């Protein structure tokens, strides 16, 4: 199901607002991961005839992305948007450079009985008064309609494919206001970067069981697996798309050792943004800071 509505709200200048809702047959946390995935954004915007670029794949608050929108044949307008917020409930971005004096894109996600409703709201303030109203009617509304149409198709397909695919789990192990990180020893392109311990869920294995097994194999320690952390994260492993899911955990027995990694270390909240994380785990830093802060005494 996909439906679109259009509404205008008038202040001292016209403020067009486009809203569109799409039903996706996938869990909300997984859809939230697709929403923050720049690979999905690039595919959908290319489908709509535009160009998109980002220095990262998975977005966090503060990241910036670039859209070169095809307004007319041979005419492109560049917008730079900054991510204001991102999480299991959705994402909000705001244009910080571009022709429009204000452009805010808010995506909200809601659980349904059959999956997730993805609702996009795009609002902007036209910069040219009456001339801007004409441009809204003739060009901008049509352009944004095509964008959100393509977005609905691509995001729904990607989320539903991921929902049927393999899962990788990771452990956010907390102790005394710190979280455990492990330094990769291989492959060469990832050696030296940091990640949360974990691995693939085997057929017939639950996610908590897989995480407990992986921690024993990688760290020589037993863990208690707790609640989910953050959104699901789309990742690509050896050319195959997978979903990464992170669970909070605490030590049950044993002291973590680097059995399969180069090193392990406990990170305080202030250290988390300073570590050279692998791409997917970088996207978890705000969630890890919140998790660790909640574990700190007092």
From TrEMBL:
EC main group: hydrolase
Catalytic reaction(s) noted: 8-oxo-dGTP + H2O = 8-oxo-dGMP + diphosphate + H(+)
One biological process term in Gene Ontology: DNA replication
Keywords of this entry: DNA damage, DNA repair, DNA replication, Hydrolase, Magnesium, Metal-binding, Mutator protein
PROSITE patterns for this protein: NUDIX (PS51462)
EC number: 3.6.1.55
Domain of life the protein comes from: Bacteria
Residue ranges constituting the Nudix hydrolase domain according to the UniProt record: 164-290
CDD domains registered for this protein in UniProt: NUDIX_MutT_NudA_like
Gene Ontology molecular function: any one: 8-oxo-7,8-dihydroguanosine triphosphate pyrophosphatase activity
Cofactor: Mg(2+)
Entry similarity comment: Belongs to the Nudix hydrolase family.
Protein known as: 8-oxo-dGTP diphosphatase
Lineage start: Bacteria, Bacillati, Actinomycetota, Actinomycetes, Pseudonocardiales
